[in-house]
Amino acid sequence: MIGSIFLWVCWPSFNAATATPLDAKERAVLNTVLSLVGSTMATFMLSQAIDRHRKFDMVTIANSTLAGGVAIGTIANVILEPVYAILIGFIAGIVSVLGYKFLTPFLTERIGLHDTCGVHNLHGMPGLIAGIVSVIAVTYPEDDYGASINNIYTGVRSTGSGGRGYSYGVQATHQLAAMFIILGASLLSGALTGLLLRLKFWRQLDDEAQYSDAEFFEIPDDFERVTATARE
């Protein structure tokens, strides 16, 4: 939970670090905080609501509360009404909690996908939400940005650029295409990584050795006895 608190506090700076100009940095910080608030509310509400004992699940509390920071990442620097930033985070929190509760066990049981750190629930699905909302956010009028529009969308035409560049509709199409390209690259690179790790020339460990440090570290003489007692 200490790590989650640090991430919650620092996430606005993650999203604002590369934003230009200064007003875009300020928007990125504000939008990220609001989105994190939305995901935190959704996490605490849903985590307890779907638990049969009506208790909070610490896995979702430590992770899904951060989903809003991921989901707002692509549009943190654009102009948003505060309610939209909160709504994006709220939706991301719901999706993340449901992923931890239902999707991860389903994938583990059906296809043997062991997402030990919940990356799909905190980064994968909220990242997909970020890609979708980036397409929608292009529809904001140019006048709202003033002279900084080409700092936000470098490819679009604006009043000050003499009519050069893409229309906002084309820019939205490019955003959508980029999302599918990234999704495809992620699936391909993940599949290749899995195939490489399954090759026999790597140093393979049997099931019992996977839970022992003896293969790679100097250990105390009584380590195996203590480990065996703990397993029992």
UniProtKB/TrEMBL annotation:
<dbReference type="GO" id="GO:0008519">
    <property type="term" value="F:ammonium channel activity"/>
</dbReference>
<dbReference type="InterPro" id="IPR029020">
    <property type="entry name" value="Ammonium/urea_transptr"/>
</dbReference>
<dbReference type="InterPro" id="IPR002229">
    <property type="entry name" value="RhesusRHD"/>
</dbReference>
<keyword id="KW-1133">Transmembrane helix</keyword>
<comment type="similarity">
    <text>Belongs to the ammonium transporter (TC 2.A.49) family. Rh subfamily.</text>
</comment>
<keyword id="KW-0812">Transmembrane</keyword>
<dbReference type="GO" id="GO:0005886">
    <property type="term" value="C:plasma membrane"/>
</dbReference>
<protein>
    <recommendedName>
        <fullName>Ammonium transporter AmtB-like domain-containing protein</fullName>
    </recommendedName>
</protein>
<feature type="transmembrane region" description="Helical">
    <location>
        <begin position="176"/>
        <end position="197"/>
    </location>
</feature>
<feature type="transmembrane region" description="Helical">
    <location>
        <begin position="82"/>
        <end position="103"/>
    </location>
</feature>
<dbReference type="Pfam" id="PF00909">
    <property type="entry name" value="Ammonium_transp"/>
</dbReference>
<keyword id="KW-0472">Membrane</keyword>
<feature type="transmembrane region" description="Helical">
    <location>
        <begin position="124"/>
        <end position="141"/>
    </location>
</feature>
<feature type="domain" description="Ammonium transporter AmtB-like">
    <location>
        <begin position="1"/>
        <end position="213"/>
    </location>
</feature>
<dbReference type="InterPro" id="IPR024041">
    <property type="entry name" value="NH4_transpt_AmtB-like_dom"/>
</dbReference>
<dbReference type="GO" id="GO:0097272">
    <property type="term" value="P:ammonium homeostasis"/>
</dbReference>
<feature type="transmembrane region" description="Helical">
    <location>
        <begin position="58"/>
        <end position="76"/>
    </location>
</feature>
